[in-house]
Amino acid sequence: MFFKYLRIALWTGLFGIGAIGVASAGLYYQALGDLPDVEKLKEVSFETPMKIYTADNKLIGEFGEAKRIPVSIDKIPDKLKKAFLAIEDTRFYEHSGIDPIGIFRAAVVSLTAASARQGASTITQQVARNFYLTREKTIQRKLKEIFISLRIEQVLTKEEIFELYLNKIALGHRSYGVAAAAQTYYGKTLDELTLGQMATIAGLPKAPSVLNPISNPERSKERRHLVLERMLALGFITEEEYKNAEAEPYRAEFHSSKLESYAPYVAESVRQTVIDKYGDQAYLDGYEIYTTILSKDQEAANYAVFKGVTDYDRRHGYRGAADNINKIKDYNPDTFDRAKYLYAADKFHYIKPAIVTEISDENGICTAVARKDTEVKITFENMKWAAPFISDKRQGPSPKKVSDVVALGDLIYYYVNDKQENVLTQVPQVEAAIVALNQYTGGIVATVGGYDFAKSKFDRATQSVRQTGSNFKPFLYSAAVARGININSIFQDLPIKTWDPGSMTWWVPKNSPNRYDGAMTLREGLARSKNVVSIRLIRQIGVQNAVEHIKKFGFNLPKSQQVESMALGSVEVTPLELVTGYATFANGGFKVTPYLISKIVKNGEVIFEENPKKADPTAPDRVVNGITLEYVDGIPEPENSAPQVLSHKNAFIVGDMMSSVIYGGHGVSGNYWGTGGRAKTVTGREDLHGKTGTTNNVHDAWFSGFNGDVVATSWMGFDSDRDLGWSRTQGPEGGAYSALPIWAEFIKISQQGTAPAPIPVPAGLEKCSNHGITDWCIRGGTTISESDVEGDEGVENTATDSRGAPVQTEVDTSGVSSDNIF
User: Fold this and answer.
1) FRET label pair with 511: which of 321, 517, 549, 633, CA 20 to 30 Å apart?
2) Are 675 and 814 members of one domain?
3) Is the N-terminal amide bond of 513 cis, ω within 30° of 0?
4) Does 240 qualify as catalytic in the annotation?
5) Contact (CB, 8 A) for 804 and 797
């Protein structure tokens, strides 16, 4: 009987073993079916973020769910590899994917230490898990992991497995792979890491969310210690290296991707465009987007906006410290985390935070501590600008000593000037923007949408619709040339008053300043931005003729804006729309289409490439000078040409008039200065053309201009209904004082070292004289003298009714409205 039961038990056991074997074999072959073939596994591609570059191949943006920087095994430092081997898989180069000895040793260590101090899974198993399996904890999944690991060891070398692991492993803060972790935690490349930093990264795979040096620095330090202990025990490092690494700082700060050029508004605009076109998968598929941005021009634009806004802000006074640590609730100097506090405040590109620690009125020095315990000293000379801000039009008394400006514990901001001096500053409330184009292709070479992307992500260069003031006048003067009015025609700069029967008020457009200088040519009227000359001019042209012509530049003019005040810049556009219009004057009369993305690459393949229609001012002139767009018979449009909307001569004449805005000229009453003379002073160049613009009550300030290389528009204003105001040092703000310096600084830096780039004179353009003033004119044009100008003899022009009779003969001043757009 005993042998009978023994026989049954034996057969049952054998059957069970066989069943397990069959099941295991089934699972094994099922796992094999899930694996790619050898070549596919070797060519596995990682989910990599979208990257955005300038035209000269500098990284300006990176977007994605995961941060990953794939790197080959030979580029990974030996000690970093040994750190991972020490803590994750000491016998990696000895086992075949599964390490029974390692599992047994890890179990023993865990039991004796009462905690899991060594990993039981091999690096190969972790690769299998990361690439092919879920995180579910079942026997079936574990068996599958083992089988896949064995198969991986058959098809890949150890170095290939290790490379996959070091690039795939999750290391916290959305960083995958060691290179991404080095950038995230330390802002370094792999070859820049210290031994302590390598050990910290190697300690992350077990629990990256709770062991990383940002979220849990103390636990990260303990884990680093364990890694270093293992490395020392295995002979991977010396005793001295161990001690030095143990003494290293253990805290870390989050670092975004290491960008090579600063253009956040560009990067965000491109990101939105690409996601709209390709969907969210673009975050994962390693798209490389190349823009038209030139890094030198972009840096010039960044600095120009920073400097222009900072100068404006200084003129209007100091609003006080951003904070004071002594006023923080429950502040305790013994427990206060100064490093964390300053880290949170350090978010701007040009300015840095610091806490005031010492004030010396006697020595005229403020001492503060910045991030990483850097001592910062600011002299009174570099803070005496800080008169108290009262309003946009009022500033308090100038400070006499350091303590008039700052107090102990103040959180202040500073920047380093070109003399390497620390200068007190503040986060401004005013905003500014600039956008620059290649006028021949439409490629955007630089754009800044605000003072700082961290302050406001709203892109004013492309999204903010504002009135233009006198920045719009060149388009009106172009309509005059198209109408056949020569620019040496003489108009009267005398006050105008017109009765408006619709509103039952007098419309009284004014010059700004409110000064009138009598007879002057159209060139002088534009150079000096005379409003009443522009009103007289639009009456000569006709509002509807002006509208028809101005629409050629691509402007959308609602019916409500098709009125005489259009001559003063009541039209509303974005800076990008405005600079595109100016490009037509700069390129010989062609309407280019602005664009930002030149090429998109995916997995080495170009999947999109822009082919812009270009302007060629040397091409035969196809446009007849006139209000209605007509083309010369028999001249075909060149291949891939942007549409020509102005004759070459019209574009040149208006552009040349704008040179007088900057360099002045000679008029009926002698020499005159234009409103844009600061452009020459700042840049030192002789090849510039441009126009200032300021809207009612100095709400917006503009400057647009160009030479033969680039065209740009700058703007300054508030996002609210605040006006730019007045300062004690400058007087009233405006296009010439607020926006022009931004434009001029951009031109000075971006064009530094370049040869003069004048606009060439079109073939066949002639000159004619009027009252001793000789200027460019188009054959067949008309020269108007002052006696021809309606309204010369009186300052009152009254509208008439349908019978031609005046609707009012007495002056009613009760409803007078003024228009100060200039």
Assistant:
1) 549
2) yes
3) yes
4) no
5) no
- Asked if residue 52 is part of any domain, the answer here is no
In 675-811, where do the E strands start and end? 689-694, 700-706, 711-717, 726-727, 731-732, 766-770, 773-777, 796-798
Least confident of 3-7, 57-61, 332-336, 798-802: 798-802
Q: How far apart are CA 516 and CA 530, in angstroms?
A: 8
Whether 767 and 503 have beta carbons less than 8 Å apart is answered as no
Domain boundary among 246, 261, 281: 246
Sequence letter at residue 478: S
Mean pLDDT (the chain, rounded):
89
Enumerate helices (H) and strands (E) in the chain, giving the number of each: 24, 36
CATH of the domain at 532: 3.40.710.10
Instruction: Confirm whether 349 is domain-assigned.
Output: no
Query: Environment class of residue 183 by beta-carbon count within 10 Å: exposed (0-12), middle (13-18) or buried (19+)?
Result: buried
Length of the chain as a residue count: 822
User: Are the C-beta atoms of residues 785 and 488 closer than 8 Å to each other?
Assistant: no
* C-alpha 507: how far from chain center: 42
Together in a domain, 99 and 141: yes
470 is catalytic: yes
**737 in the same domain as 688:** yes
Catalytic residue (choose from 88, 524, 577, 745) = 88
Residue with the bigger pLDDT between 359 and 145: it is: 359
Structural domain that includes position 18: 1-34
Distance CA 641, CA 125 (A): 60
83-92, 247-256, 647-656, 747-756: range with lowest mean pLDDT: 247-256
- Looking at the fold, whether 109 and 16 belong to one and the same domain comes out as no
Q: Who contacts 481 (Cβ-Cβ below 8 Å, separation ≥6)?
A: 487, 625, 650, 653, 654, 778, 781
Closest CA to 584 of 644, 649, 661: 644
CA atoms 671, 676, 679, 681: torsion sign:
positive
Does residue 29 share a domain with residue 78?
A: no
Same domain, 22 and 111: no
pLDDT reported for residue 440 = 98
Helix, strand or coil for residue 71? coil
Share of the chain above pLDDT 70, in %: 87
Alpha carbon distances (Å) from 510 to 15, 143, 380, 516, 669: 106, 87, 43, 9, 21
Exactly one of 149, 269, 470, 659 is catalytic; name it: 470
Would you say 477 and 523 are in contact if contact means Cβ atoms under 8 Å apart? no
Compute the chain's Rg from CA coordinates: 36
764: left (phi over 0), alpha (psi -120 to 50) or beta: left
What DSSP assignment string belongs to 488-523? T-EEEE---EEEETTTTEEEEE--SSS---EEEEHH
